[in-house]
Amino acid sequence: MAGWGATAGTEKIVGGYYATEKWGMDKFPVEKIDFATYNFVFQAFLKAKEDGSPILVPGRYPCPSLVKLAHQNGARVIISLGGGSYKLFPQICANPETFKRLVDGIAEFVEQNDYDGVDLDWENAITPEQGKLWDKLVRELRLRMDQIGKTKKQKMYVFSALPCGSWFTGKLDPETLRTQLDFINLMAYDQGSQTAGYHAALEPAADDQRQVGFAKTLKYLTEELKIPRENICIGLPFYAYAYENCQRYEKVPPNDKVKKVTALGWAEIVPLVKDWKREYDPATRAAKFTSPDGKTTIPADDPQSIADKTAWAKANGYSGVFCWAMHHDAMPDGSAPLTQAMRQAWKSQ
Predict the structure, then answer these.
(1) Which residues pair with 61 in a beta bridge?
(2) What is the spatial distance between Cα 78 and Cα 69, in angstroms, rounded to a whole number?
């Protein structure tokens, strides 16, 4: 039941990360999720204490209203573990007692609350020894999900969100990647975001000496690690970075009072760039917005970018696309232009 053989080529995914933290769920309740678009919802993020026990918050972790509504609409709900700010996985997984408490707690959480699987978001820099711990955790999650699936007589999923670049995946066991995961969620964003350039390029811009582009990571995964395209989902950012008083591709010092980097959701960007200059790069699939005074640029994914990347993913045989994150696309009038662009592009191919 484990690995590519269970799902290769048989499922197509249009997924979205749904944040049940206050900054997400309180602004974007579960009733606003567009289930006409999303057939997989990744609930972010379940974390664990230092002793390995999951941190439970009634109404959020678990989130019965999300699970119920998703299942009523034929969608699957995957609980995402960790997240970019979470740093305790190496410590927990290195200790047999806390490791067992972690996997026992996750399995119990999934089974008792009717989730459809797990998504491991171990996102921080990783050493070769920590890569072995990642491998151990994935294999144990696979075992536990298959045990639950056998009891419930249904498919249970194991995803892992992976950053772009071999700096992370190069520390992992390719065999585990190939045989223990159902799908990889490739976070095709946050590539060089602290330099004043587009962070989610498909191919590098002509003048980008950084050579940033997630097509390179896809080639590494599929050709060197032999992971089927049918089991890779490509991430689409519903947010971008505004660069103020920065030269193009300049590295921006942290906490600089003049040169500033600001993360913005698409719903925040739209009113800001109403009268700004827009340019589109067909290589990166980025829309670059420049303020009238020329001091601020926002290279972003707008509806054209999202549609182009979605169409590219489907045309090239990848299993699907997903966004981070749904709430960034929630406009005051109730519309969701990036979600709509993703849905239309996937269905039209």
Answers:
(1) 57
(2) 13
User: Is residue 285 in a domain?
Assistant: no
Q: Which helix (H) or strand (E) holds 91?
A: helix 89-94
Note whether residue 261 is domain-resident.
Answer: no
CATH code, domain carrying 308: 3.20.20.80
Q: What is the pLDDT of residue 194?
A: 77
pTM: 0.96
Q: Is the pLDDT of residue 185 over 60?
A: yes
- The string of pLDDT tens digits covering residues 28-39 is 999 999 999 999
Question: Per the structure block, which two tokens stand in for 254?
Answer: 């942290």
In contact, 77 and 116? CB cutoff 8 Å? yes
**Residue 227: CB partners within 8 Å, gap ≥ 6?**
4, 177, 178, 184, 221
For the CA atoms of 286, 43, 326, 240, what is the dihedral angle to 10 degrees?
A: -40
Q: Return the closest-CA partner of residue 193 out of 260, 261, 286.
A: 261
Residues 175 and 4: beta-carbon distance below 8 Å: no
Exposure letters 240-266 (e unless 16+ CB within 10 A, then b):
bbbbbebeebeebeeeeeeeebeebbb
Q: 65 pLDDT band (50/70/90 cuts)? A: very high
- Compute CA distances 277 → 233, 238, 245, 292, 306, whole Å: 32, 20, 16, 7, 19
Please provide residue 297's backbone torsions phi and psi, each rounded to the nearest 5 degrees: -125, 145
Whole-number Cα distances in Å, 106 to 46, 61, 98, 134: 9, 11, 12, 15
Identify whether 87 is part of a domain.
yes
Range of the domain at 226: 4-237+302-348
Identity of the amino acid at 1: M
Residue 233 lies in a domain: yes
Residue indicated by tokens 């009634």: 58
Number of domains the chain is built from: 1
How confident is the model at residue 3, as a pLDDT? 42
